[in-house]
Automatic annotation (TrEMBL):
Source organism of the structure: Bradyrhizobium huanghuaihaiense
Coiled coil: none
Domain PilZ: 3-78
Listed GO MF terms: cyclic-di-GMP binding
One Pfam short name: PilZ
Protein name: PilZ domain-containing protein
SUPFAM superfamilies the UniProt entry points to: PilZ domain-like
Length: 79
């Protein structure tokens, strides 16, 4: 698989919440960069294309767009 990221991602393990108009879903932030992240989720079903990621440890809210989905992980781009 070709690497398409233009920023290096750093491995992390932080609790997060995917927040959107219809509710919120807990997730784990597995890697993180200035431009995006990979999130572990119980299931990607029901997660909208656009949402806000809240990272409890940092107290940050980041607008996200889903770039890819796998069985229990999604990739997002910030902005």
């Amino acid at each position: 698989m070709d690497e398409r990221r233009n920023k290096a991602r750093h491995r992390v393990l932080k609790a997060g919440t995917i927040e959107f108009g219809g509710g919120a879903i807990d997730c784990t932030v597995r890697n993180f960069s200035d431009t995006g992240a990979a999130l572990d989720v119980t299931s990607p079903v029901g997660i909208p294309e656009h949402f806000t990621l809240f990272i409890q440890a940092d107290g940050t809210h980041l607008p996200c767009t889903v770039v890819w989905r796998k069985e229990k992980r999604i990739g997002v781009r910030f902005g």
